[in-house]
């Protein structure tokens, strides 16, 4: 089993789609603000050209972004991007692109910004999994450089993907919207890959996946959540004692391995419950529970509703997120 394929396993459980919405072409001074996103949405921004100051309004933190930087906000927090001058922004005008996205631009000749903005959509109830295990904001850098190996680093792949997005956004070709949305979906996966492969992976699941000794446990749980994993089994996979494994896991994720396993099982169960031909008893067994009553209790605790309530909402198209 590949120790690096945890991401494919995760995205088999959590469905993510993407959509490019706005291309910003600004000269300084400029400023754009975004309110809190809906529970199942993750805003993203790609700095194609120029630079921007990113302000996270909840953590009160700022960060300078340069060309090639990509920022995701997994918790959907309100945020601002601006040129950093503090001057009154030049008025903007907007027009609808042929592929469905909006072009926002101003007439300032000063330092130019080329910015792509969009959203990722997480199928309910998996936004809960994303919020619990990904950082509040995530920045990756796409760097153009010749690949030395047959398999390019994730940063090189990101650079190629961003170049494709820029070409599609600048053109007016058949299928443009479909291509941009498909590239946006791929962007989510590549940003997570790049973050987990970076020298200092951010907190949460990405830090675990990027940890050479803990990665085998993450991959094993994602590959087979229904397996009756015990802490000694997972510790053995990582070549650690039970106590050492528990300490490292808790330090990096803020919860235990069994907490993560339970959340993965409940997300998998939510997917299975959408199928009306599968009984709740069968779903419970599929995700590793011999007792249907225990499954119902844990599902209600984690998801805020019973399996039956979730099934009815899924069938009527009224699924809500927690």
Can you put this structure into words, describing what you see?
The chain is an alpha+beta fold. It has 2 domains: 6-205, Jelly Rolls (Sandwich); 214-316, Arc Repressor Mutant, subunit A, CATH 1.10.10.60. The protein has 12 helices and 11 strands. The strands form 2 sheets. The protein has a 7-stranded mixed sheet with strand order 8-9-1-10-3-6-11. Strands 2-7-4-5 form a 4-stranded antiparallel sheet, with no helix packed on it. The protein is globular and about 65 Å long. Residues 145-151 have low confidence and may be disordered.
What is this structure's SSE topology?
Layout: H1 6-13, E1 16-27, E2 31-34, E3 41-49, E4 51-56, E5 61-66, E6 69-72, E7 79-82, E8 93-96, E9 102-105, E10 112-122, H2 127-133, E11 138-141, H3 154-170, H4 176-197, H5 205-209, H6 215-223, H7 231-237, H8 242-253, H9 257-273, H10 280-286, H11 292-303, H12 307-316
Parallel strand pairs: 1-9
Antiparallel strand pairs: 1-10, 2-7, 3-6, 3-10, 4-5, 4-7, 6-11, 8-9
